[in-house]
Amino acid sequence: MKVTVVWATPTVHDVVPLELPDGATIAEALRQSGLVDAYGLDPGRLAYAVYGKRRGATAPLADGDRVEITRPLVADPKEARRRRARAAPPPRSKPEQKRRV
Fold first, then answer.
1. pLDDT exceeding 90 applies to what percent of the chain?
2. What residues form DSSP beta bridges with 18?
């Protein structure tokens, strides 16, 4: 079966096409791709996805799958949102409108 393993960062986009036996797992695809060694990645800190859906390293692959190696988050998204909200200027209030009677 044919699969693709992808490692992407803001500065690197590496795509490795592979031919694997039926029933191969994500872990086997990673090992054969050589991306972990080539970029000095720590497998214990990585997560994996197949077409954007999270999968474990032992998940079986199907013909045509695209395995994505995902990086750990650098910042907590909720905390980043709080920092942006605190740094933003306060919202302007609208002038009061007079009611017609």
1. 57
2. 3
Note the Cα 56 to chain centre separation in Å.
13
In a domain? residue 101: no
Q: What type of residue sits at position 30?
A: L
- List 50's β-bridge partners, or say none: 53, 67
The answer to the question of residue 94 being in a domain is: no
Number of domains in the chain: 1
* Of the candidates 30, 4, 31, 8, the residue with the CA atom closest to the CA atom of residue 19: 4
pLDDT in tens, 67-81: 999 987 677 788 888
Q: What is the mean pLDDT of residues 29-58?
A: 92
> Does residue 37 lie within any of the structural domains?
yes
